[in-house]
Design a protein that fits this description.
The active site is at 271, 345. The chain is an alpha/beta fold. The chain is 35% helix and 20% strand. It binds ligand BES, manganese (II) ion and zinc ion.
Length: 493
């Protein structure tokens, strides 16, 4: 059985558990409700902290065992001056969970009484607890030393009722991020296009309207670009359309489009064996879009949003698309397939065109694990941002900073666009190594017309980054918190 984590809130006076955690700022004794709990130990703060060389620095812990009230841990929170950004609270929640897990505690009281501990800040801390607690271990046979007991954490705060409301709202977004992580971590033998579509269909329980388009319908729509990627696989393509109608009837929706290659072998232009298993995560864009729809519906966001994901498997076979083949996209554009491993842009070409054509959205943002070149440029720190609209780009950059899912803007220009011209068709899907992420973005832009549009190349951030305070798993769920933040901060009300 996986370990469960439950989080609840209570007033300061109720703080009592086998393990109590309070905070102290650097060079200071515990303050507020923490001071009262400390004084109940009967210990002298100066003497106790000095003997353990506890200075209150971030990450430091002073562990007091054997007191009447049970075990007490004082956690350092660093210097107290200055405004703390919201995402520092998320990180604090993450490191708190790590401390609690290391202490093997089952029932914990955490006292948070300080300036800046608003309901929104505590909700971030609670989100950090849950995000750090996440594990994808469903395929591991349990070992005897696994912690069997569930963890129950009570956050003792100034305003429990307001904090509960803030936590419930933030929890919807956590659920979205964790859904995206699960989809990405799931192996491709379990999660094919059909199975992914079924997962998306489960969002109808939350009031999302889900349509699943099958190959015959995609054929009819003229999606020769998306379909050519799927033709080498035994498993048929799906295009999933998810609609959340939380805004006014008739208001143009915000549109999100995701690359959902459930496995990318490269096709006939097959990839080398090293690390190919990571290509089970090549549906990270589709996972983020699905997670975002989960988040928006879960918190009943007052906005109209549509999520469109193109689900295919890129396999080599006797029926696979070949280098040199020319296909026709829904837009009418003809594409020379130079490299069958540049398949994500072929999927998105039709998904983007379809989305702007059908929904006339306010904006269209696509997410895709599109190019290895974006990892060369930005590593695992920032996702690449490409946009035809400065206002949308700046809003995305801001949302990325607030949510701590950072973006870095890359250029688009007619000179780069020229590079994708083909000898035999309108455009080609692969150009060569120079500016590989940019030419991929230029390819996508051919399918967006004049809609404000942004492309997020998340090849470096969707999976495979080093562990952080808020994520100990291979996949990150990158994009869900970022886009929820964008919607919240700029498009509601
Ligand atoms: N899915 C890959 C990009 C990728 C690489 C994502 C590593 C995550 C980690 C994409 O389909 C791909 O193969 N891109 C090629 C494009 C090239 C053939 C023009 C690449 O980046 O090499
Ligand atoms: Mn590829
Ligand atoms: Zn790919």
């Amino acid at each position: 059985m996986p370990q469960k984590l439950s989080i609840q809130t209570a007033a300061f006076a109720a703080a009592s558990a086998p393990l109590t955690i309070i905070y102290a700022a650097e060079g200071e004794a515990p303050a507020g409700a923490g001071a009262a709990i400390w004084s109940a130990t009967g210990l002298d703060w100066q003497a106790a902290s000095a003997s353990a060389a506890f200075k209150g620095k971030q990450g430091q812990a002073l562990d007091i065992i054997g007191q009447g009230a049970g075990r007490l841990i004082v956690l350092g929170k660093g210097k107290s001056e200055g405004d703390v950004p919201l995402n520092a609270w998320t990180d604090r929640g993450g490191s708190l969970l790590a401390k609690i897990a290391a202490a093997r505690a089952e029932s914990v009281a955490v006292v948070i009484d300080e300036a800046g501990a608003t309901p929104a800040a505590i909700a971030e801390l609670a989100a950090g607890l849950r995000l750090r607690h996440y594990k994808f271990d469903k395929y591991k046979t349990a070992r005897p030393d696994d912690p069997a007991a569930d963890i129950a954490i009570t956050l003792h705060v100034a305003d429990p009722a307001a904090t509960d409301t803030a936590i419930a709202d933030r929890d919807a977004v956590v659920e979205g991020t964790l859904l995206a992580r699960n989809l990405i971590n799931e192996p491709a033998n379990v999660l094919g296009p059909v199975e992914f579509a079924a997962k998306a269909a489960e969002l109808s329980d939350l009031g999302v309207d889900v349509e699943i388009l099958e190959p015959a319908q995609l054929e009819k729509l003229g999606m020769g670009s998306l379909l050519c990627v799927a033709q080498g696989s035994e498993r048929p393509a799906r295009l999933v359309v998810m609609q959340w109608r939380g805004g006014d009837v008739g208001d143009a929706p915000l549109a999100f489009v995701g690359k959902g290659v459930v496995f990318d072998t490269g096709g006939i232009s097959i990839k080398p064996a090293a690390n190919m298993e990571e290509m089970k995560g090549d549906m990270g864009g589709a996972a983020a879009v699905t997670g975002l729809m989960r988040a928006l519906a879960g918190r009943k966001a007052p906005v109209n949003a549509v999520g469109v994901i193109g689900l295919v498997e890129n396999m080599p076979s006797g029926n696979a698309v070949r280098p040199g083949d020319i296909v026709k996209a829904m837009s009418g554009t003809t594409i020379e397939v130079i490299n069958t491993d540049a398949e994500g842009r072929l999927v998105l070409a039709d998904a983007l065109w379809y989305t702007q054509d059908r929904f006339k959205p306010r904006f269209m943002i696509n997410l895709a694990t599109l190019t290895g070149a974006i990892i060369v440029a930005l590593g695992h720190e920032h996702a690449g941002l490409f946009s035809n609209n400065d206002e949308l780009a700046i809003r995305l950059l801001n949302a990325g900073i607030t949510a701590n899912e950072k973006l870095w803007r890359m250029p688009l220009s007619p000179a780069y666009d020229k590079l994708i011209e083909s000898k035999f068709a309108d455009i080609r899907n692969s150009v060569g190594r120079p500016a590989g992420s940019i030419t991929a973005a230029q390819f996508l832009q051919r399918f967006v017309n004049n809609v404000p549009w942004a492309h997020l190349d998340i090849a470096g951030t969707a999976f495979g980054a080093a562990a952080t305070e808020t994520n100990a798993s291979w996949s990150a769920g990158f994009g869900v918190a970022l886009l929820d933040r964008l919607v919240r901060d700029y498009y509601e009300g």
